[in-house]
Amino acid sequence: MFLQAFMMVDRSSFYGSRHLFDHYGDMRLDVDNMTYEELLALGERIGNVNTGLSEGMISNCLVEKTSSSTDHDLEEASCPICLEGYKSKDEVGTIKNCGHDYHVSCIKKWLLMKNACPICKAPALSDSLKKQ
User: Fold this and answer.
1) Which domain holds residue 26?
2) Using CA of residue 32, residue 50, residue 99, residue 125, what is the dihedral sign?
3) Which residues does 92 contact at the CB level (< 8 Å), separation at least 6?
4) Do 16 and 72 share a structural domain?
5) Do 74 and 102 fall within a single domain?
6) 76 and 20 in one domain?
């Protein structure tokens, strides 16, 4: 009985009224209700943020190999980026950090735009290695 009465207490008495008013509400952008033109203008103001890697950095985080007909694991799998199956003599790239496989051309294009594994989102190259 006491527990039920306690659960019905107004939470504002615990948190105070300061949480009822959003002090930063006027600073937030409501992108869900912006027009296409407003979104384009916002994109021009913000600019392009590149989170990808350079070609040199990509070679540091990728192990490249040529698939063969004896690679039964790759033979039954497909590239998660292009969704095509691996064929004999395909160039396959494995991210060193997590071990996920991709077509080399697919993962290089991805890593030029984003420093993260497309499957597990782990960094392909850690920040400490990027600075070297």
Assistant:
1) 7-46
2) negative
3) 64, 65, 66, 67, 74, 86, 101, 102, 103, 104
4) no
5) yes
6) no
Q: How many CB atoms sit inside 10 A of residue 100's CB?
A: 16
Strand (E) or helix (H) holding 5? helix 2-7
Q: Is residue 117 part of a domain?
A: yes
pTM greater than 0.90 (yes/no): no
Contact 119, 81 (CB under 8 A): no
Whose tokens are 């420093």? That residue is 115
Give per-residue pLDDT as tens, 57-105. Answer: 999 999 999 887 666 666 678 899 999 988 888 999 999 999 999 999 9
* 73 contacts 51 by C-beta, under 8 angstroms: no
- Asked whether residue 1 is domain-assigned, the answer is no
Q: Which of 81, 120, 111, 53 is CA-nearest to residue 90?
A: 81
The total domain count for the chain is 2
CB-facing half-sphere around the CA of 25: CA atoms within 13 A: 5
Backbone angles phi, psi at 114, to 5 degrees: -150, 130
